[in-house]
Amino acid sequence: MKTDSATGLIEVFSSLQGEGLFLGYRQIFVRFPGCNLACSYCDTPLAMPEQCRVETEPGSGQFRLIPQPVPFSTLYDLAASWCVDLPDAHHSFSITGGEPLLHAGVLAVWLPRLREILPIYLETNGTLPDALSPLLHLLDYICMDIKLPSVAGTGDLWEEHRRFLELARETEVSVKMIVGPQTTDQELLMACDLVSDVDPEIPLVLQPQTGRDGTVTVAAVQLLHWQSLAARLLADVRVIPQTHRFMGVL
Known about the structure:
This protein has a domain at 6-177: TIM Barrel. The protein contains 8 helices and 12 strands. It has helices spanning 72-85, 104-114, 129-132, 149-152, 158-168, 185-198, 220-231, 243-247; strands at residues 6-7, 11-16, 26-31, 51-55, 63-67, 70-71, 92-96, 120-124, 141-145, 172-179, 204-208, 237-239. Helix 6 links the parallel strand 10 (172-179) and strand 11 (204-208). The radius of gyration is 18 Å and the shape is globular. It starts with 5 loop residues before the first strand and ends with a helix.
């Protein structure tokens, strides 16, 4: 596959990162379709659209539609022009989905060129270690989910998460866990033990589940309790909700 290849994308836009350790940084988001999981709380469109929507101007919230598949040259030229128009405004690319590692073959070709423009930040559900391995040298940051069975409804993924995190620690990695009213202390501690066994210095973000109406579904006192439990095992534990919901940004 060459860099003049094309692939299907859902959308490309410029906005503020609303989750995790990179909260508030401005990124160019490149959203890939498809996912290997079906989390109960997911509200992200995953199907391949007939056309990809691309922001007309960075941060405008206005979009135009372009035919699928999207040529790499279109994405590269767009991102490069945004970085010229807004020098030093963007921190990195957010490669997101769905699950972008389902497109590992495309990423292996595209990321070296995109990295000429900005660093690469991968948002992933942390269940495809075999797809991650050949891409590690192309990634600057990884935000990896740990899916708690009680909240995500995905079943037991502990082994996949462990293998993934052992690889991802070669980059600047952080872990995000969505917690909800049904989360138990035992389940939370199982996840924290997993992270601690790999490296207790890996930052952990507890992200309270957000309802369809944008409200946080977990009481502050419960979040403080879970933070104190996690902090016994990990050096850096933060509670960060989905702030883009509050700000009304993409």
